Predict the structure.
Amino acid sequence: MLNEKSAAPLYRQIYEAVRQAILTGEFQPKMPLPATRLLAKQLGVSRMTIINAYDQLFAEGYLEGRTGAGTYIASELPEELLEMSKATRRRTAEKRVAARSLNISSQGSWLAKIGANVLRLDRAMKFTPFQHGLPALDEFPFDVWSRIAQKLYKNMPREVLGYGEPEGYRPLREAIAAHLKLARGVKCDYAQVIITSGAQHALTLAGKIFLEPGDEVWMEDPCYLGARGALLSAEIKPIAVPVDADGFDLSEALGKSKNAKLVYVTPSHQYPLGLTMSLARRLALIDWARANDAWIIEDDYNSEYRYAGRPLASLQGLDRDGRVIYVGTFSKTIFPSLRLGCLVVPKDLIEVFTIARSLNDLHSPLIEQAILAEFIAEGHFARHLRRMRKLYEERQKILLREAKKQLEGLLEVREADAGMHLIGWLPDEIRAERVAKKAAQNNLKISPIAAYSFNPHPPNGLILGYASYNERQIKEGVSLLKKVLLEEYD
């Protein structure tokens, strides 16, 4: 039945009706269809309407015509066009995919073996306590950011509309170099700064430049999953080195392997345990790298958020031999979706890193780089960091207070000098992995340290992020966690 009030034209309604009849098997292959004049008369429409509908069906292969013999349903229709349930079509497609040959490279095969879940993020961004690694996005000065963006879009510089330099937008590199020298004690000029799409991208570039398949790499245990994934993609041999109260231990590393070509460390705020590498160990690690022609990747994770005194100076600032590659990101200080980070490389490595960056994806988006450059240059970034440092310190205190009030005897939550999360320690008989799984069933996002460890017997702790949650959310989250823990202790 044609509907003249429908938004769909009459010819389209006829086309859909005939097509559906073919797909459901009501119209069988080789079945003749009425002549256009006859069908037009039967339906009370113009002949041109029928011709248009038939033409569309001819074009898509549903109909075929025979000179002097009329119009017929196509004699050969693809099997997937015939009546099949969605489940049947899905199973058929899955069988075809499973049967095909995976003609991929040796590196592709190797990557498949290490698994697709090396790094798993909550991309839904639901802000469920106590997910860690999320900044307080509701406190970010988007009004300032928007004003800068609006000004830029109104008077767009030509240099941000074309292809840019692979090492990044020069004003941003200059602004980052100035900030790092002042705030982090990094020794560099703008030419040593290379803009990347976040820290993991920076680590991937370093892996490509320094590492051959099979090379040994010292890695902290536990360790940032993004770093593990980026370096494993270079087909290296990871050497897990446990950390203690003074951070990465060179003597422990040498006891496991003396052939490491590279070491990955988070010296200012170890991820995820929050430890700080002592000055003596920093200097010893630099001496080792110089003596062994090796490299150090310093991931300056969460260094900006230190609540006891001033932020610690970077490891790179102590290096006199060009052995430290500094990695930074704006995911925790601006917002994660910005996807901008940086490398600071020794001067004699600028060219090779620039070429690698160019071949990887040419450059990061220039407009976002230009906005960030203005944001830093006008002083908004430094002001934002000061505000967030104060806010996160307050939120840490709220979490500590609520944990003491509600979780005492269930979970030992310790104060931290820096960062955006705390560690909650459990007795050996209550496994963190099980608690995290049950917490997820209660709408809590809590990660066990085990998820970041190489050790089959990892530290028995939970990672509790607090930076992105207000007082009410923290209190509610602690109450839910108490319920989960009481069930476990029973």
About this structure: The chain has three domains: 10-81, 141-379, 383-489. The first strand starts at residue 32 and ends at 33.
